[in-house]
## 1
Amino acid sequence: MIARAAAILRAGGLVAFPTETVYGLGADATNAEAVTRIFAVKGRPLGHPLIVHIGDVSQLDVWAGSVPVSARALAEEFWPGPLTVIVERGRQVVDAVTGGHPTVGLRVPDHPMALELLREFAGAIAAPSANRFGRVSPTSADHVRSDLGDEVDFVLDGGPCAVGVESTIIDCTSDVAMILRHGAVTADEIAAVIGYRPADVGGPSRAPGMMVSHYAPDCRVVLADSHASAAEVALGLPVAEVLDPGPDVAAFAHDLYRLLRDADRRGVATLVVVLAPEVGIGVAVNERLRKAAGGV
Ligand code: TXA
Ligand code: MG
């Protein structure tokens, strides 16, 4: 199965594969034509850069033009894992991947199937999340199939993703490292490695390709501060349901995109979602929820 997926990548095809965060829609990162097809299949505007997935930390120097101390320390600490590091791009990174930007996002995914695929392919895989543009990311192979159907050449099924929300993105190209998107690797964990708290520019419209409408299900998402106020809001609305992270926010992150998809499938008109405490993975969860709610 892995051998077949690697052969498809070599031939310029598209392979959806599991990572610990969400499923990716992968192509050979050196094949501009294959990479361009990713944009067509997703309906993603060109110019929104893709993350390049590599097999191990030693590949950082191969795909980066230069590697700041902070980027190297973070890669060594957190890879394989849910952290994407933005660095100056290396020469073999094609324009189609970066959208012409001078930087590239790199990460080593922490999933046995992804790592096996990278080993077998012996290259780098450019991959966004394997969903249609602006929609909720897929956290199972079934989500990928229902989003992309025949337009993906092969889907590797690695079961449900362990983390459930996309990787933390940290831009290491300036003097002060900046978080562009929150994920399972937290600002505190990053601070412990680089020696200072990274600037926080997470949130809508900051990184290219990050906009308010991202992660949006069909149903309306309304946010609430507590279960009681959520229940009250839901009472006054037709076909409304309450979604509450409860005490285990990591488990909620794991389930979140499936729950949003399920709500759509069941015809829920409005989901009233209780925000998570703003700590740990709760920061990443709330960032997604605010985007799903349209930035309000
Ligand atoms: O967990 C993840 O990161 C998943 C899995 C598949 O690895 N990938 C993912 O890719 O979420 P995508 O394309 O859906 O989101 C990547 C985000 C985009 O918003 C893009 O704008 C940003 O990363 N990005 C990529 N390269 C960048 C760069 N050079 N500078 C700034 N932002 C960048
Ligand atoms: Mg995405």
## 2
Amino acid sequence: MNRSMLSKFNGPHPPAPSPEGEGEKIFVCWRSPSNIALIKYWGKKEGQLPLNPSISMTLHQSYTLTCVEAEFKREPGGRIISVNGEIQHPFLLKMEKLLIWLVQEIPVLGNFIFRVETSNSFPHSTGIASSASGISAFVLCLLSIAEKVNGGEIPLLEFMKMASFASRMGSGSACRSVFGGFTLWGKTPDVTCSSDLFAIPVTERIHPSLRTLHDTILVVSSTPKSLSSSQGHSLMVNHPFKLARIRQARTTVSELMKALTLGDLNRMAELAEVEALTLHALIMSSPGGMILMEPNTVQIIRQIREARQKGLAVFFSLDAGPNVHLIYPEEAVLKVENFIREELISLCENGFLIHDHCGTGPVRTIMETQ
Ligand code: DP6
């Protein structure tokens, strides 16, 4: 089943490596955004499949720009030669593993060697998932290369579905980044066509008032993560609350989809906050009992809840770290700016925050043969 998903990239006559083609290059760039999960993907099964469905909002300003140069080789390729001119990069292992898998799926990629240039629009360790944007940008480049080699254009939505499927193999959250607006990953009876294998866009079901939400990331600490995602997901394998968590996430997906459709921001706020706190509760109740929140994280959460009780349309989400995503609607921007200035900025590391908002998804920026 998995294999057939990318079969469109295996054209009827993939070019056989020929002496004439040696050294020919294809150059592709994609800009792909990060996303913030409102319902968290936490824990996975064999085959990089999620334990539970998740829903995210795609960001706009926080993206990775990746360019890949593919050079045609007669001898077996399918290798990354450099990332940013070097042979070391935090995601090199993930990218190499993913490339090995992709070459099995799309053999024509095995005829190239790859040079990757990649950069993020946002600083490291600030509560924005760089693997979601980085891995999806890399996959989009490789699939565009495969598409070009095969010479047949694949309709955009289909292309993105396959990009989501392939991105998932590199990083689960990356499969949600290939669509703009709101995205659902994981099989749920609430949404037909939902799948554990790839994410689907659900923005059309979302009330227009929620499609322009803002997300200001309040950076409490930019010290690198003490818990990697793979360590984190593995904590769920024997977690005492595993079954309850899966049940809870399924119900929350159902409830959140209703709230999103109705444009019910208050209900959305309640559900997203419980989700964020559940993620941390699961981490805290795992062996070793890690506490990833800082005192200022808790203080910010309290202030946000107090402000909401007083009528300000704000709520929070958290990733697996101390930084807080403050989410609010377009019409509250001015009031929230005041709120941040008066009550929250002093709780951020050197007053550090990053403004972002719901975005429209990845963009191919340049595509030319060199
Ligand atoms: C807490 O997608 O980074 O951000 O599949 O191992 O790469 P891998 O994990 P990753 O996990 C993200 C976990 C999370 C929640 C979420 O984004 O859904």
